[in-house]
Specification:
Chain A has 11 helices and 12 strands. Chain A is of the alpha/beta class. In chain A, helix 2 crosses helix 5, helix 5 (140-153) runs antiparallel to helix 6 (157-171) and helix 7 (199-207) crosses helix 11 (284-298). Mean pLDDT of chain A is 84; it is low at 1-5 and 11-30. The termini of chain C are far apart. Classes of the chains: A alpha/beta, B mainly alpha, C alpha/beta. Chains in contact: A-B, B-C.
């Protein structure tokens, strides 16, 4: 008699445990959302997210653009736009997510950009019962898709869709004829340039600048200095941390070997701030306009 | 005959370094091309000087610590240089020479620290203590470097690691002249130590009885080899493998007498690095490979070939 | 006629840093040209330390050591190497060499920093090889030599230094009787025919007694006797120093030690 009750008790426990584990794969309760993130993971929310931790500056900007800024309860130290975002508590630099700090914000949704390290972090968050979504953040196209996804997750489907359409229209808009040849130099020793696989390359094309290293498929690559010399860009583009007072040319341009580059000799530089240009953001049209303006100044 | 062969190898390596490159420069325009004159030529010369210095320092160090597996990086110098470079980057030092100077200072600091740690054991520059101290300093500097990187502006420092992996991108006539002024003294000191190093191979006491001032020789070789390595690393990052393998390869051809071995190692190391740099620049053009990878990929099969020839004879 | 005094060690005492007792106390040794002076004693009696003090490698706390009239500490290593050839107990040989190459290392004190080996250096090497009867091995790799041959090669290297004094530290340890005898005979010839002073540290009491002109017997760093073998190697002295019962026989006028089976009344 007792053994039978014991077994039922055990079975009940097992059923309960199975139910708890299988929560994600069951059909959502009414009012629930199911999305598939960019890593192919199915993520379910009972209701539109109310407390969101964003571990990507681009995502933070998108959330504010979607009108969900007040729901952002955690950000990374890199999330500096819009200014209102700075009031949100930071949970670290987000490169190797601090799970504890994230969990301490009691979010119901965590958004990370897609990388191998973050896939592990997402799994850890899921184990804690926190819904985690991974989004690709490399190119303009990714922006539109993410806007839609975030729109769904915050219950602002219509806003998300319209923002996505704006971005898509912008991305597929006509490319002006290139007025200048540019090289984006990220590092000097060894020289590292931005290639055709990057977001910056897309912005350049939309701004009327031809990236001389467009033929390199990856986002960035180490190249020989003599390659930069022979490809002879009109302008060298350098990324800076902040938009401050008029910048002076970076230190490496005073090194003798860099003087072989015509643009360095002629001191034709364009400085772009990392915040606006370094990551895909809904301010892309703004960025392109600014880039175009700076290019005109530099090639006058 | 061997010297003639080595001379040809050197000439060919140098010629290839000047003629080949990601940018196509027709032979007719070679002498007038700006790319060749201001970039390729100094880079080939620098590769030669750096490779030769590393191989020479490696030979001297192997004799000093009486261990044929010694490599200049074993003495913690590369770690010190890397730390210096990373600190310079983290501090956003604007001066174009800041990075090599900081790397050099870091390497010298490591050299002094290893020397000091070696003194703790009692005998000055005891080979076993020296190696252990070098490994300890290397590990320590690596840890501090990682700490600096993880606590600072991540993006820039990721690129700092590219520098650490070694490369001759910073080559200019300035750096060539600098090395030409700086290197001859330590090189001369090492070459002059050839005979005492032969004696040292018998052991310190026999060497002493044969007339070698053992303490002085050890100190001179240690300092000269460290100075050469420090300069090489400061200019071109950590290029491993040259200092370890070139002495071995040269020994297979010249034996162990240091009088021919030291200069042969210098020439061989120079040729190897010049050739490796050419491959690094051309193999995946327009992209470039870190030269340390190429030296390893080239050096190992060559070494295996020489080894088989030797064991077969 | 008094033979030339090459090495003059007087009353040296010496202590290693951190040691509880003196390694040497009041030891004297006079090595003259043409004489073989053997240094005997149990392990740890200070034989190798004596050599180190004699050659200026270790400073004594008392007493003096002079070579050719000049204090040992005044000699530069290079100059000293032209006068004293030492065959140490142990030697590493990290790198493979041929016999001629390793003997050539003995010419180091005569070579200038950058200059090549001259004809006279090669001649000295050939002479040294001939004197040690290893000329026929000149082109062999040293790892192919037997123990006895290798020791003769090392001796040749010391002779290539053209020294006035030869110091041999346990040269026949681990050699068989034939090679031992050959070495001792060779040493005797070098002293007699070439007028070298020889200081020979050895465990082999009997061969030392046969071949040496003088014997210095050390016990715990103190001299237990210095003089002709017959005077020093008496039964009482030997039993005391080596702490073992012996009988002294005579062979060709020289004392020969015969160890006895253990007696009950000795400690």
């Amino acid at each position: 008699m007792r053994r039978w009750a014991h077994r039922t008790h055990l079975a009940g426990l097992l059923l309960f445990a199975a139910a708890a584990c299988g929560r994600g794969s069951r059909s959502a309760p009414s009012g629930g959302l199911t999305v598939t993130d960019d890593a192919g993971r199915a993520v379910v929310l009972a209701q539109p997210a109310r407390r969101i931790v964003s571990l990507s500056p681009g995502v933070t900007e998108l959330l504010f653009a979607l009108g969900a800024g007040d729901r952002v309860v955690g950000r990374t130290t890199w999330c500096d736009y819009p200014p209102a975002a700075r009031a949100v508590p930071s949970v670290g630099d987000g490169l190797n997510p601090n799970i504890e700090a994230v969990a301490a914000r009691h979010p119901d949704l965590v958004v990370l950009y897609r990388s191998a390290l973050n896939e592990t972090a997402a799994a850890q968050l899921a184990r804690l019962g926190l819904a985690a979504v991974l989004v690709q953040q490399d190119r303009l196209e990714d922006l539109a898709r993410t806007a839609r996804l975030l729109g769904r997750l915050t219950g602002a489907d219509a806003t998300g869709d319209s923002l996505a359409q704006v971005l898509e229209r912008f991305a597929s808009g006509p490319r002006p004829p290139p007025r200048a040849r540019v090289a984006f130099v990220v590092w000097d020793n060894p020289p590292v340039v931005i290639g055709g696989g990057s977001y910056l390359d897309q912005l350049a094309a939309l701004a009327g600048a031809a990236n001389v290293f467009h033929d390199i498929g990856s986002a960035s690559a180490q190249v020989g200095l003599e390659t930069i010399v022979t490809r002879d860009p009109d302008v060298v583009v350098v990324l800076r941390d902040s938009a401050g007072p008029p910048p002076e040319p970076p230190g490496f341009t005073r090194r003798p070997e860099w003087r072989a580059v015509r643009a360095v000799r002629q001191r034709r530089f364009v400085y772009l701030t990392g915040s606006l240009f370094g990551r895909p953001s809904p301010r892309a049209p703004q960025a392109v306009a600014e880039f175009r303006r700076r290019l005109e100044e530099a090639t006058r | 005959m061997r010297w003639l062969g080595l001379g040809i190898v050197v000439a060919v390596a140098f010629a290839l370094a000047v003629v080949l490159g990601p940018a196509h420069v027709p032979l007719a325009e070679l002498l007038t091309s700006d790319v060749v004159r201001s970039l390729r030529l100094p880079r080939a010369l620098l590769a030669f000087l750096v490779g030769g210095s590393l191989a020479l320092a490696g030979t001297g160090l192997q004799a000093l610590v009486r261990n044929p597996l010694a490599d200049p990086s074993l003495l913690g110098l590369s770690g010190g240089a890397g730390l210096g470079a990373v600190v310079a980057i983290a501090l956003h030092l604007a001066n174009p020479w800041a990075l090599p100077l900081a790397a050099f200072a870091g390497a010298l600091g490591a050299m002094a620290l290893v020397y000091r740690l070696g003194l703790v054991g009692g005998a000055e520059l005891d080979p076993r203590v020296l190696i252990l101290a070098g490994v300890a300093v290397g590990a320590f500097t690596a840890a501090v470097t990682t700490a600096v990187v993880s606590l600072s502006d991540a993006a820039e420092l990721r690129n700092a690691f590219l520098w650490l992996w070694g490369g001759l991108s910073g080559a200019s006539w300035d750096s060539v002249w600098l090395l030409c002024v700086y290197a001859p003294l330590p090189i001369a000191v090492l070459l002059a130590a050839a005979r005492p190093l032969d004696l040292l191979a018998l052991g310190e006491e026999p060497a002493r009885h044969l007339g070698a001032d053992v303490e002085s020789v050890k100190r001179r070789v240690y300092v000269a080899a460290s100075l050469l390595t420090a300069a090489a690393v400061a200019v071109s990052g950590v290029i491993g493998f040259v200092g370890l393998v070139v002495p071995h390869a040269m020994r297979l051809l010249w034996g162990h007498r240091h009088r021919p071995l030291l200069p042969a190692a210098f020439l061989g190391g120079g040729a190897l690095l010049a050739f490796s740099d050419t491959v690094a620049r051309v193999a995946v053009a327009p992209r470039e490979l870190p030269v340390g990878i190429v030296t390893a990929l080239i050096g190992v099969p060559v070494f295996v070939l020489l080894l088989r020839r030797w064991t077969a004879s | 006629m008094d033979r030339e005094l090459i090495l003059d060690v007087r009353g040296v005492s010496c202590r290693y840093p951190g040691a509880s007792g003196d390694a040497l106390t009041g030891v004297s040794l006079a090595a003259r040209a043409g004489e073989v002076h053997a240094v005997l004693g149990p392990n740890g009696s200070g034989k190798t330390t004596l050599v180190r003090v004699a050659l200026g490698l270790v400073a004594p706390v008392a007493g003096s050591a002079a070579i050719l009239g000049r204090p040992a500490s005044d000699w530069s290593r290079r100059d000293l190497a032209r006068v004293v050839g030492v065959v140490t107990q142990r030697e590493d040989n990290l790198f493979p060499q041929r016999v001629r190459e390793t003997v050539l290392l003995g010419r180091y004190p005569y070579l200038s920093m950058w200059g090549r080996e001259r004809a006279e250096d090669h001649a000295a090497v050939e002479r040294a090889l001939a004197r040690c009867d290893v000329s026929f091995l000149a082109n062999r790799w040293i790892w192919t030599l037997s123990g006895g041959e290798y020791q003769r090669v090392r001796l040749a290297r010391a002779l290539a230094q053209e020294p006035k004094l030869l110091v041999l530290d346990e040269p026949t340890a681990s050699l068989d009787v034939r090679h031992e005898m050959q070495l001792f005979e060779l040493v005797r010839v070098l002293a007699d025919r070439d007028g070298l002073a020889v200081v020979l540290i050895t465990h082999h009491v009997n061969l030392a007694a046969r071949f040496a002109d003088r014997v210095l017997l050390l016990a715990e760093g103190r001299p237990a006797g210095d003089g002709p073998p017959a005077d020093v190697l008496t039964r009482e002295t030997v039993e005391r120093v080596f702490a073992w019962p012996v009988s002294i026989a005579s062979f060709e006028g020289r004392p020969q030690m015969v160890p006895l089976r253990k007696r009950e009344d000795l400690p």
